[in-house]
Amino acid sequence: MITPLVLITFLENAFKHGVSSNAQNAWIYASIEVAEGVCTYKVKNSKIPQAGKTITEKSGIGLQNVKRRLDLSYPDNYQLQVQDLDDCYDVELKLNL
After folding, report:
1. Confidence at 51, pLDDT banded by 50, 70, 90
2. Residues 8-24: pLDDT tens digits?
3. pLDDT in tens, 27-46
4. pLDDT value of residue 59
5. Is the dihedral of CA 62, 68, 74, 75 positive or negative?
6. 8-20+27-96 CATH
7. Which residues pair with 79 in a beta bridge?
8. Which residues contact 9 (CB under 8 A, 6 or more apart)?
9. Pick from 28, 93, 40, 42: which is nearest to 66 by CA?
10. Residues 65-90 pLDDT 10s
11. How many CA atoms lie within 13 A of 36 on its CB side?
């Protein structure tokens, strides 16, 4: 019932940007819950500190692509909240199935 691989981008990003280094306190939280016809998918991860580096611009291609796929597969039937906080990255996706 869920478009194939639409959820993987968020989890992939959590590993790529959250725990891909040897940071001691790196963590990822992921959950999927289906209730009353709504799938709620949450992914939250720590951020890797960039010592001496500032990221001025992010490409966001993966996020743009997944938003486009969601628009095509679930027009007006999903909610996506993405929070890029100082210490973590937090995603919540709700799909009306």
Report:
1. low
2. 999 998 988 777 766 77
3. 999 999 999 999 999 999 99
4. 59
5. positive
6. 3.30.565.10
7. 94
8. 62, 63, 65, 66
9. 93
10. 999 999 999 999 999 999 999 889 99
11. 0
Residue at 12: amino acid letter: E
Question: How many residues are listed for the chain in this entry?
Answer: 97
d(CA 61, CA 26): 24
* Residue 27: how many other CB atoms lie within 10 Å: 12
Distance of alpha carbon 22 from alpha carbon 5, whole angstroms: 27
Cα separation, 47 vs 60, in Å, equals 16
DSSP secondary structure of 1-62: -PPTTTTHHHHHHHHHHHSSS--TT--EEEEEEEETTEEEEEEEEE----TT--------HH
